[in-house]
Amino acid sequence: MVNEDERNPGRPPLRKEDSFDVPDNHAERDEAQALCYTHYHERVLKREDSDYLIHNVRPLASRPVVNSDSGTAFNNEPDNLRDVDEDAGIMEEDRLVDSKKDVKNRLDEQITEELRMLYTNFQKCLELRDKYMKVSAQRVGDNPSDSDEWTIYPPPPVPSWPPPKPEDIGRVTDGPESIGSDFVREEVPIPGLCNLFFEMDDTGVYQVYATKEDLAQKKPVIQVPSPKDYFQDLDFVLSVISDGPTKSFAFRRLKYLESKWNMYILLNEYKELAEAKRVPHRDFYNIRKVDTHVHHSSCMNQKHLLRFIKAQMRRTPEDVVIYRDGKELTLEKVFQSLNLTAYDLNIDTLDMHAHKDSFHRFDKFNLKYNPIGESRLREIFMKTDNMIKGRYLAEITKEVISDLEQSKYQMAEYRISIYGRSEDEWDKLADWVVEHKLFSHNVRWLIQVPRLYNVYKATKSVKNFEDVIRNIFKPLFDVTRDPSSHPNLHIFLQRVIGFDSVDDESKAERRIYRKYPYPRVWNMPTNPPYSYYAYYMFANMTSLNAFRQKRRFNYERNPFPTFFQRGLNVSLSTDDPLQFHFTKEPLIEEYSVAAQIWKLSGADMCEISRNSVAQSGWENRIKKHWIGKKWYLPGIPGNDMAKTNVPNIRVAFRYETLREELNMLQNTRV
Q1: 589-632 pLDDT per residue, tens
Q2: Which cofactor does it need (predicted)?
Q3: Could you give the C-alpha distances from 481 to 77, 208, 497, 609, in angstroms and in order?
C-alpha cells in the first residue's frame, strides 16, 4: 500500500477527524483461512491413514459382509486365507464395519463444516442486503407512492375494457401536440413548510432532525450506517466473492440451475403452450413491458433525429440557437459554418450509429452522441440547458412519447443527468419538464449522476467532493422541507423513480489511500473510487427517503440467456436507440432480436416483460392494473395470467427453485 504522503508529497497529512478507516481484513482473513485449511488437510491425512489401514484389514471368513450402508458385499479373498478360525473372521468383519462407519461419519462431519461456513457466509450476505434495503426504504411498500390512495396527476387513462363512459375517457392520444394537454400547472397542490430540520454532518451526509433540540443534540430521525460500517460490510461481501471454495460452490449450483431449467423445458414446454392458449385476448404484443434502461438524450432512432433536424432547418432557420466565438448564431448560420444543407444530411453523415470500433471504447461511444461529430449540434438538439432552453429536445421528446402512447403497451424510464456542478441544475431540469408539459402515463424519469468530480475540479467548478454532494442533494432536501420554495421541482419529483451512478465501468480502480478523507477534505484532483461514490449516494438517499417518507412524498457474448435460465430477475432494455436501433419501436425490436438469437418462446418473452414491470418504478396502483392485484406475492398467488400471459406452471417452477436455494442456505446443519 502506498503511503498517502508518498503519493501526495505536497499534501499535508490527514488528521484523524478528517478521515475514516477503510478496513483491509485480507491479512486476518487469509490467516484464518490458512488455519482452517491446515486443520482440514490434517483431517484429510488422518482419513487417508484410516482408509489405508481399513483397506489392509482382510476378513478372515469366506462369507458375505452385510453393511447397512453399502448393501451386501461378497468377499473375494484368496482361497489360501479361508481356512482360519470362523469366529476370528466374524470379529474382524465387525471391526471392519465399525471402522467404515467411523470414517463415513468423520467425512460427513468435514463436509458439513465446509458447507456450514459457505451457507453462513451466503446467509450473512442476504441479511446485509435486507439491512441496507430496509434502512434506505427501498422495499416494496416503503414508498408512499405504493399506497392505493396515492394521487397520480395527470391521472392515468381508464381501462379500455369494459368500454368506459365518454366522460371518463380523459385525454386521447392525438399526436405530439396532445402530450401534456391534460396537465394544468395551477391544479397541482403544493404543500407548505414542515417543522423538520436538516443539515450536512462532518462526514458529508445530510441528516434529518425532528426538532431543534434534536438538531442541537445531533439525534437524527434515522441512523444512517457510518462510512466505516459500510466499508466493513462491503469488505465482507467482496471477501465472499473472491473466496475460492465459494466460487467453486456457486459455479456448481449455477450449472445445476441451468440443468434444472433445461429439464423443466423438456418436460413442460407443451404444457406451457397449452396453458397460454387458454387465456383470452392476451399475447406478447398486448402485455405491458417497460424499457428499464434508456438514456433520454438518445431515446429516438437515427432516422427520427435526422428527420427532425431537417424539419427544424426548414421551419425555423432564424432561431438563435448558440453562442460561439463571441457572437450569437442562428440555426442556419450554424449549418453554413459546417458547409452543410438540409439536402446534404443523411444517416451516414449523421454518423451516430455504434459500429464495431465503438464497443469496449467508452471514449468513442460518447463521441457518437455528437451529430456529424460536432459538439455544437449536440448542445443545440440534445441538451435541456442551452440557449433555447431545451425546446428542440422537448419537441422531439414529445414525438417519441407520442409513439409510445400509440403503442399503448410500451413504457419507458428515461435516464436524464444531474451533474452536481451547481445547485440550480435541479430547478433548470424541473422547469424544462414542467414548462414543456412532458407528462405521460407511459413515461417516468430516472436521474443518472456521472462520476466526473475530477473534471469539475480541473475546471474549478467545485472546490472539493463535498460541493458535489451539496449540489446534488441540498435542493432535494430543500424542496422536501418546503415544496413551495421549488414548486416545479416538487412536481417533477413525483415522476422521478430512482437514481443511478454512471461512468466508464471498464476503468480499473486502485486503492490509493489507507484512510479515505471525508468529502470536505477530498480536494485533490483524483476521482474518488466507485465505492466512495456509492456510499455517499446511498447514505444521502437514505436520509432523503426517510424525510420524504415522513412527508408522504415519493420518487457478441451476452450473459442474458444464462441469467434467465438460472432464474435471475432480468429484463430487456434498449439503452441507446439512437445508436443501436432502426425502427420507431426499439423495445419491440430488442425483444424480436433476442427471440431470434436465443430462441425465446412466447412464455419466455411474457415472463421477461412481467419482470420489467415488476422492476420498474411505476406506482403500485398502476402495476396492479398491468400485471395483477397481488403481483408482489411470490409464486402462483402473485401471477394473474389474464394480464401477464405467463403460465402458472412457469411461475411455480421459478418459486420452487428459489425456495430450494434459500432453504439450502438456511440449513446450517447438513
Answers
A1: 898 888 888 889 999 999 999 999 999 999 999 999 999 999 99
A2: Zn(2+)
A3: 89, 10, 19, 37
pTM over 0.90? The answer is no
Output the nine-digit C-alpha cell for 338: 459546417
The residues, ordered by sequence, that sit 6+ positions from 143 with a Cβ below 8 Å of its Cβ are 137, 549, 554, 555
- The phi, psi pair for 207, rounded to 5°, reads -115, 145
Measured CA distances, 603 to 414, 553, 574, 599 (Å): 27, 37, 21, 11
How many degrees, rounded to 5, is the angle at CA 529 between CA 525 and CA 532?
105
Q: Which of 225, 207, 293, 205 is nearest to 500 (CA)?
A: 293
Q: Which residues, other chains included, contact 319 with Cβ-Cβ below 8 Å and sequence gap of 6+?
A: 312, 330, 331, 388
Burial of 411 (0-12, 13-18, 19+ CB in 10 A): buried
Q: 464-510 pLDDT, tens per residue?
A: 999 999 999 999 999 999 999 999 999 999 999 999 888 766 676 77
Q: Using an 8 Å Cβ cutoff, are 40 and 533 in contact?
A: no
Alpha-carbon torsion, ordered 488, 494, 496, 498, to 10 deg: 130
Compute the residue count for the chain.
Answer: 670
Distances (CA, A) of 669 to 117, 134, 295, 656: 11, 28, 48, 21
Helix, coil or strand: residue 97:
helix
